[in-house]
C-alpha cells in the first residue's frame, strides 16, 4: 500500500474474495480500528464488514463492473458516512508462479467526489469545445486522444488518427524538427512552442499544407508513471502569409520584383562569406543604363518605369537562378556570381547582358533602344573586402562609360585612384561653397581697334585655406555633371549681381553676362534665380548676357529650348562660346538668336601658322559671323601681331593676356577708370566655368 500513502483519500487492497490485505493511513484513520484488530495469520476481515447497506448491490458491482463507481454507506468509527467507491482489478504472479488477482478500492467522500466530478466536467468541456486543436500522445508519440477542433482543423476522422503515430499529421521536415525539439523536454525546458507544417486532408484525398503554431507540454500518468504529451495547435497560415508578404515587400523592389538594396546587402554578405570559405571567386557586375534620364525627361516616368521592368526581365535571363540580381538605384543594377570559372566566362556573361539589353524595347507606342555600361570586379583579384569589391565594380562601370558606353570594363586600380581624386575634389568644392571660398575673378575684354575696355569675363576661382587662388581647371572637371555645379552657378550669379550693384553705386553701369552649361540650363533653380533678378533688378537685365555652349545638345532637348526661351523673354541676351569647335552649328545661331559669337582660342593661335589653310579657316569664320550681323569676340589674344591681324579683319573685340589676366573685384574699379572712356559703358561679361 506504499503507493497509496501519498493519496489523500482512503484506499484498501483486497483479494478476489474481498479479504482486506492492505490499506493506507487515511483508510485506517477514517474507518477505525476494525482494520487492524485481526491478528496476523488469523482470518482476515472481509471488506463487506465495513459496508453499512446495499451489500448485495456492492457485490454485484464488484462482480459485473458495469459502471466505474458505486455509492456506499460505510461505518467510520461508529458513524455512517457516504462514499463513492472506485475499483481497479490487478492481476499478478505469486512466488510459486500462480496467477493471483487483487482489487484496489478508492473511497471518495461523496461531497468531495461531486466537487471533483464537477471540475472534471468543466475540464472536459474546455477540452471538447476549445477552438484550439488539441491532441494527446503517449510516451511513444502515438495519439491517445483528440478533441473535435483537431478533427475539424486537419479534416481527419477519429478512427484515422487514434493509436497512430503523430508523424502522420506533419510534413517530413516538420516531424523531424518536432522530434529534435521533444528530445529537449525535461532536460532543457518544460514546454515547446514552434511553427510546424501540418497536413490537412480534403475529402477527395488531396493534401494541403498549413502552418500551425504548436505548443507542447509534458504530462504524467500517475498510475503508469510514463510521459504523455499535450499538443495544442493554432492555425497561423494566414498570419504567415501576411508576414511573408510584408517580408517580400521589405526585401523586393516593388517596380521590378528584383531584390532591393536591403535584400542585396544581406545576400551579398552571405555569398561573400561562402566564397571565402570555399575558396571560390565572386564576380560583381555593376550595370547602369545609358542616358536613362533623357527618357524620363523627354517622355515621362511611365516610360522610364516600363523600361526598367523590361530591363529587369532581360537581365534576369542573363544569369542563373542561384545568382544574385538586384536593383540598387534608379537605373542601377548589380549582379553577383559565385563561381570557380575563369575571367573569360565573366567576359562572356557581360557581353551577353550588353547584347540583350541593347535590343529595342516596346514602350507603349514607342520603339526605344537603350544601352548600358557594365563594370566588373572579381574577388579576390580586385579586392578582398566586401565593400571595396562593390566600389571596384562601380568604378569599372565609369570606365565603360568613358570608353563610349554600351560596353563593359574590368576594374582598373589606376582609374580608381583618379576617381578617388575626383571624389576628394567634389568634397573640397562642397565645403568651399559653404565657406564662400568660390569667388569671381574678372578678365577684361577690349575693343581691338581703339584698345578701350568694353567688358569683363568673370571666371570662378577657388581660394584655398592657404589663400592660394586656384583656376577652374582644378575643380571643374570633377563637378561638371554633379549637382554642385548648380550651387556653383547660383553662387557666381549672386556675387556678380553684388559687384554690379557696387559699380552702380559709383555711377558705372557696366553689364554682366553669365555662362551656363547644358547641365545648368536644365536646372529650374538656375532659371528661377535669373527670373527673380529680372523682377528685383530690371536695370541689370540689359547688362546681363548669357553665354552658352553645346548647342547640338540644346537643339535636341526640348526642356533646354523652353528654358532658354524663358530667359530671352525676360530680356537677357545670348552669346555663343567657343564657336568653331565642339557641337556649334550655324543653324543654332539663328534658332537661339545669339547676339555675340566668341571665336575659340585655338583659331587665334593659328593666325601666324605656316599653314595657309589655318588662316583661311579663321578668315572664313570671321566673314561668316559678320554676314550674319553678329558681334565677334576673339579669345586667347596674347601678342601684338595677333591684335594687328584682328584689326585688319575688323573682328571687333578680344580678350587675353595681351590685355590683362583676370583680376580680383578689388582691382576692378581702378581698371575701369584707367581703360574705358567715361561716356562709354559696355557690358561686363561673366563666365561661370
UniProtKB/TrEMBL annotation:
Highest taxon above the source species: Bacteria
Annotated EAL domain residues: 422-676
Classification via Pfam families: EAL, GGDEF, PAS_9
Residue ranges of domain GGDEF in the record: 280-413
Matches recorded under NCBIfam families: GGDEF, sensory_box
Protein name: EAL domain-containing protein
Lineage summary: Bacteria, Pseudomonadati, Pseudomonadota, Gammaproteobacteria, Alteromonadales
Amino acid at each position: 500500500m506504499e503507493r497509496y500513502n501519498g493519496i489523500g483519500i482512503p484506499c484498501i487492497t483486497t483479494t478476489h474474495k474481498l479479504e482486506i490485505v492492505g490499506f493506507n493511513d487515511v483508510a485506517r484513520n477514517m474507518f477505525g480500528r476494525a482494520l487492524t484488530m485481526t491478528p496476523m495469520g488469523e482470518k482476515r476481515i472481509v471488506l463487506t464488514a465495513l459496508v453499512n447497506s446495499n451489500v448485495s448491490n456492492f457485490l454485484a458491482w464488484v462482480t459485473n463492473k458495469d459502471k466505474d463507481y458505486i455509492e456506499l454507506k460505510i461505518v467510520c468509527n461508529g458513524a455512517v458516512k457516504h462514499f463513492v467507491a472506485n475499483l481497479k482489478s490487478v492481476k499478478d504472479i505469486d512466488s510459486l508462479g500462480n496467477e493471483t488477482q487483487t482489487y484496489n478500492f478508492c473511497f471518495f467522500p461523496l461531497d468531495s467526489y461531486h466537487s471533483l466530478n464537477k471540475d472534471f466536467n468543466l475540464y472536459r468541456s474546455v477540452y471538447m469545445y476549445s477552438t484550439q486543436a488539441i491532441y494527446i500522445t503517449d510516451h511513444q508519440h502515438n495519439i491517445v486522444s483528440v478533441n473535435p477542433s483537431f478533427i475539424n482543423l486537419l479534416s481527419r476522422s477519429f478512427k484515422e488518427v487514434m493509436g497512430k503515430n503523430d508523424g502522420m499529421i506533419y510534413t517530413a521536415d516538420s516531424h523531424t524538427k518536432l522530434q529534435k525539439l521533444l528530445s529537449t523536454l525535461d532536460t532543457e525546458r518544460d514546454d515547446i512552442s514552434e511553427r510546424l507544417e501540418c497536413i490537412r486532408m480534403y475529402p477527395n484525398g488531396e493534401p494541403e499544407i498549413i502552418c500551425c503554431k504548436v505548443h507542447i507540454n509534458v504530462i504524467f500518468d500517475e498510475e503508469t508513471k510514463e510521459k504523455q504529451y499535450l499538443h495544442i495547435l493554432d492555425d497561423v497560415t494566414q498570419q504567415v502569409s501576411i508576414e511573408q508578404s510584408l517580408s517580400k515587400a521589405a526585401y523586393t523592389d516593388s517596380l521590378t520584383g528584383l531584390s532591393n538594396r536591403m535584400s542585396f546587402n544581406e545576400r551579398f554578405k552571405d555569398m561573400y562569406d561562402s566564397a571565402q570559405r570555399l575558396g571560390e571567386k565572386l564576380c560583381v557586375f555593376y550595370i547602369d543604363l545609358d542616358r536613362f534620364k533623357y527618357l524620363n525627361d523627354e517622355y515621362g516616368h511611365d516610360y522610364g518605369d516600363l523600361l526598367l521592368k523590361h530591363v529587369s526581365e532581360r537581365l534576369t535571363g542573363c544569369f542563373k537562378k542561384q545568382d544574385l540580381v538586384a536593383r540598387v538605384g534608379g537605373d542601377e543594377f548589380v549582379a553577383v556570381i559565385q563561381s570557380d570559372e575563369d575571367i573569360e566566362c565573366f567576359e562572356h556573361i557581360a557581353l551577353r547582358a550588353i547584347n540583350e539589353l541593347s535590343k529595342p524595347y516596346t514602350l507603349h507606342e514607342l520603339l526605344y533602344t537603350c544601352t548600358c555600361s557594365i563594370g566588373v570586379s572579381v574577388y579576390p583579384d580586385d579586392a578582398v573586402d566586401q565593400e571595396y569589391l562593390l566600389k571596384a565594380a562601380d568604378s569599372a562601370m565609369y570606365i565603360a562609360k568613358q570608353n563610349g558606353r554600351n560596353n563593359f570594363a574590368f576594374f582598373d586600380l589606376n582609374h580608381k585612384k583618379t576617381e578617388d581624386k575626383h571624389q576628394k575634389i567634389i568634397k573640397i568644392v562642397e565645403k568651399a561653397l559653404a565657406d564662400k571660398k568660390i569667388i569671381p575673378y574678372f578678365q577684361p575684354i577690349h575693343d581691338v581697334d581703339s584698345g578701350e575696355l568694353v567688358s569683363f569675363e568673370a571666371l570662378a576661382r577657388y581660394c584655398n585655406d592657404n589663400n592660394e587662388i586656384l583656376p577652374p581647371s582644378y575643380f571643374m572637371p570633377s563637378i561638371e555633371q554633379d549637382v554642385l555645379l548648380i550651387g556653383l552657378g547660383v553662387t557666381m550669379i549672386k556675387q556678380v549681381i553684388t559687384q554690379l550693384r557696387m559699380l552702380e553705386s559709383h555711377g558705372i553701369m557696366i553689364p554682366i553676362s553669365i555662362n551656363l552649361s547644358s547641365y545648368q540650363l536644365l536646372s529650374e533653380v538656375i532659371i528661377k534665380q535669373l527670373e527673380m533678378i529680372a523682377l528685383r533688378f530690371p536695370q541689370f537685365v540689359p547688362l546681363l548676357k548669357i553665354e552658352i555652349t553645346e548647342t547640338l545638345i540644346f537643339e535636341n532637348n526640348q526642356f533646354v529650348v523652353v528654358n532658354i526661351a524663358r530667359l530671352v523673354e525676360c530680356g537677357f541676351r545670348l552669346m555663343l562660346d567657343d564657336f568653331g569647335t565642339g557641337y556649334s552649328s550655324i543653324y543654332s545661331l539663328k534658332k537661339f538668336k545669339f547676339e555675340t559669337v566668341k571665336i575659340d582660342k585655338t583659331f587665334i593661335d593659328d593666325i601666324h601658322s605656316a599653314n595657309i589653310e589655318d588662316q583661311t579657316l579663321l578668315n572664313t569664320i570671321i566673314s561668316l559671323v559678320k554676314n550674319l550681323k553678329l558681334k565677334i569676340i576673339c579669345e586667347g589674344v596674347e601678342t601684338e601681331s595677333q591684335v594687328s591681324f584682328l584689326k585688319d579683319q575688323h573682328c571687333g573685340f578680344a580678350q587675353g593676356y595681351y590685355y590683362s589676366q583676370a583680376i580680383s573685384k578689388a582691382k576692378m574699379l581702378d581698371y575701369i577708370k584707367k581703360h574705358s572712356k567715361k561716356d562709354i559703358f559696355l557690358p561686363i561679361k561673366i563666365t561661370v566655368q
